[in-house]
Each structure stands twice: as structure tokens, then as C-alpha cells.
Design goal:
By secondary structure, this protein is α+β, with helices and mostly antiparallel strands. The protein has twelve helices and 17 strands. The protein has helices at residues 9-18, 50-59, 72-79, 88-94, 97-106, 120-130, 155-164, 220-237, 270-273, 278-286, 312-317, 346-357; strands spanning 2-5, 25-29, 41-44, 62-65, 114-117, 134-138, 148-151, 169-173, 179-187, 193-195, 199-204, 207-213, 241-250, 253-260, 299-306, 321-325, 335-343. It is globular and about 55 Å long.
Length: 361
């Protein structure tokens, strides 16, 4: 049995990918309404509940997690008795933006200029050093644009400190990038590796809206560079599972933004658009099975359904559309599902994407 810390849509898609492989699942989540509830043995408990964690350690052959905010101490408690992949030390890196940036820098992946701060004096000095505009982030917590503040002018400094102060922060230069990219790679328990094509991502209000894969008009040198950095990070961390690296493209350069030690929203296109989905390859990796091919099957796009659902019948009339719903109640800013589009060539993909975007608010 495979245990998952977290029971949301990523756990749901892991389970859907695992059942054809003969796997069964258990999940810990504090909500009775989580997305995996009908697909796994659900333990409704907090992520630090010792009874739930000990149950996972006793009954599961391997444990993974669907989001990087799982307490590292919880993963370590389980790892004392059963394998946890990626291992708990990875959480120590991914949960601290400073540690993450230092890892990137050490391995040669350039990042936006950054300064770590903990006091108001340090904060003022860091903004002066980095310059404006700057993006200020909490070192811990924060996702989908949360825990961030953009300082564009001196008048923003007090407001930013009022909103984010009191926590350890990192002040980064706001990069005027050409586009946002991501690369997903996978490494198994025996060190086998594979990398998916680089993905082009469009965000709005801090939330991923559209991904295209392979990223249009990407120079082969940038694909190679992204692969090199992903593999270097996995080797450095002795990583097992799928890893996502979020990147900025500036001309012929890549800058490292963040990493996610899990299956990733920008990789949902792989369910229909790659020989092996990110979910199936993650499961293969953590259970010691041979990895599947990460080759793209033509051209794909993924559109998140956020806040409310469009006319689903009209969505399904778009040629090449594959609908995935997460069984969630609508609310503003909530990811309710996604649609994957596939096409043989990039021009047809864009035409289908235009038809879909006309339906999605």
C-alpha cells in the first residue's frame, strides 16, 4: 500500500494513476471532503497526528506527499519505520526559500538577486540593496501567490512590513523575465532518471492558468540547461520521485525561482500528452519500478478551472479536450479541475486553446 500525506487533487490523480499498476492507497488529510476520499483509505487527522502517522508507518510499504508544507518532523517520524520519498531532508530545503536559493546558487543555477532579512533594519537595507521593484516573500509557507508582496515604490515599504513583518523574509529583485517555465524530472530508488520537455506557464494573480508543452520556440540549449539543473539538484539531494523546478527565461538564460518536491500543476498535461504521466512515473520511482518514457505525444496545453466551472458540455465539444474534475465545491480562487488539450501541431493546439479559453472565465 502507498501512503500519501495530503488528500487533495494531486493525491487523487496519484491514486487514479496507481490503480492500473495494481497499487492501493491510504491518505492522511484533515478534511473529510478531500479529493482522494473515494479512492483511498482516508485517515482524517492533522499532518502532525502521531496516531495517524504511526498507522501509515505500520501499514504502508512506502509513503509520499502531495504538497511541500507537510511538517518535516512528521515525515521523519514515518521514515523511522518505512521509506518516505522524497526523503524528509528534501522538505527542509523546499520549505525555506533561502535554503532553496542557496542550493540553486551552489549548483550553478543563477537566481534573481536576493537578501534574507529578519528585522526592520535588515529589511530596509535589503530593499535598498536589491532595488525596486522587489518581491518580498516569507521564507516559509506561501503558495499560489500567498505570502508575497511587491514593493514598487518607497510608499510600499511600510505596507509590506506591516503585512509580512514578524516573519523571516527574503527580498528578491523583481525580474523582468521573458516568460515563466518549468521542468519536471523524475529519479527512482535505483538512480534511474528521466526529464520531461520544458513547459511554458502563464500565471495570473499568482495562480497558474495555462501551461503549454513542449514550450513553444524553446532553444534546444535551454532544454538541455533545464535538464542539467534538474538532474544536478536531484543528485545533490539523493532525490526519489518527481521534482518540479520553476524557472524564469531571460533571453538565452535561465534563472531558478522555486522547486516543488512533488508532482506539479504544470505537469498535468502529461496525463494525455506524454507516453507516461508524471503521476505514473512518480509511483514507478518510489516503488522501485522502471521509469516510463517522458516523451511528449505531439503538443499539449493545460488550462486550470478556477473558482467556477464553465459549461462542461461545451468544453467536451472542443476537439482534443480531456476534462479532469477534482470533486470540489466552487469558491473564488479554488482549483476545481483542469482541461488538457492535445494536438498534432502547435498551430492546431493554439486554435483549440482559443476555443477553450472563450469558455473558461
Amino acid at each position: 500500500m502507498i501512503g500519501v500525506l495530503g488528500g487533495g487533487q494531486l493525491a487523487r490523480m496519484l491514486a487514479l494513476a496507481g490503480y492500473p499498476l495494481g497499487e492501493r492507497f491510504a491518505a492522511v488529510d484533515p478534511s473529510t471532503e478531500c479529493g482522494v476520499r473515494d479512492l483511498a483509505h482516508l485517515i482524517v487527522a492533522g499532518y502532525d497526528d502521531p496516531v495517524a502517522l504511526d498507522w501509515m508507518a505500520e501499514h504502508c510499504d512506502v509513503v509520499t506527499y502531495e504538497f511541500e508544507r507537510v511538517p518535516a518532523a512528521s515525515a521523519r517520524r514515518i521514515a523511522e519505520r518505512t521509506p518516505v520519498h522524497p526523503h524528509p531532508g528534501v522538505l527542509d530545503v523546499a520549505q525555506d526559500r533561502l535554503t532553496e536559493k542557496e542550493l540553486f546558487t551552489r549548483l550553478g543555477l543563477a537566481t534573481p538577486a536576493f537578501v534574507a532579512v529578519s528585522t526592520r533594519r535588515d529589511f530596509d537595507a535589503a530593499v535598498a540593496s536589491v532595488g525596486m521593484p522587489a518581491v518580498v516573500k516569507t521564507r516559509r509557507e506561501g503558495y499560489d501567490g500567498k505570502g508575497q508582496f511587491v514593493v514598487r515604490r518607497p510608499a510600499d515599504i511600510d505596507a509590506c512590513w506591516s503585512e509580512l513583518g514578524g516573519k523571516d523574509l527574503i527580498v528578491e529583485a523583481l525580474v523582468d523575465f521573458d516568460r515563466e517555465l518549468s521542468v519536471l524530472a523524475v529519479r527512482s530508488t535505483i538512480g534511474e532518471t528521466a526529464v520531461y520537455p520544458v513547459i511554458d506557464n502563464v500565471h495570473r494573480e499568482g495562480i497558474l492558468r495555462v501551461s503549454r508543452a513542449p514550450a513553444p520556440a524553446l532553444a534546444p540549449e535551454l532544454q538541455s540547461a533545464a535538464e542539467f539543473y534538474a538532474l544536478a539538484i536531484m543528485a545533490e539531494l539523493d532525490y526519489v520521485g518527481v521534482l518540479a523546478i520553476e524557472l524564469f527565461q531571460l533571453g538565452d538564460r535561465l534563472l531558478g525561482n522555486e522547486m516543488a518536491p512533488r508532482v506539479h500543476n504544470s505537469g498535468h498535461w502529461t496525463i494525455e500528452g506524454a507516453v507516461t504521466s508524471q503521476f505514473a512515473d512518480h509511483l514507478r520511482a518510489i516503488t522501485g519500478r522502471p521509469l516510463g518514457s517522458t516523451r511528449a505525444l505531439g503538443h499539449s496545453a493545460m488550462v486550470n478551472l478556477i473558482g467556477s466551472l464553465p459549461d462542461l458540455d461545451e468544453v467536451l465539444r472542443v476537439e482534443g479536450a480531456h476534462l479532469h474534475l477534482y470533486d470540489k465545491e466552487p469558491r473564488p480562487g479554488r482549483k476545481l479541475g483542469h482541461v488538457t488539450l492535445v494536438a498534432d501541431d502547435p498551430e492546431e493546439l493554439e486554435a483549440r486553446l482559443d476555443r477553450l479559453r472563450a469558455l473558461v472565465v
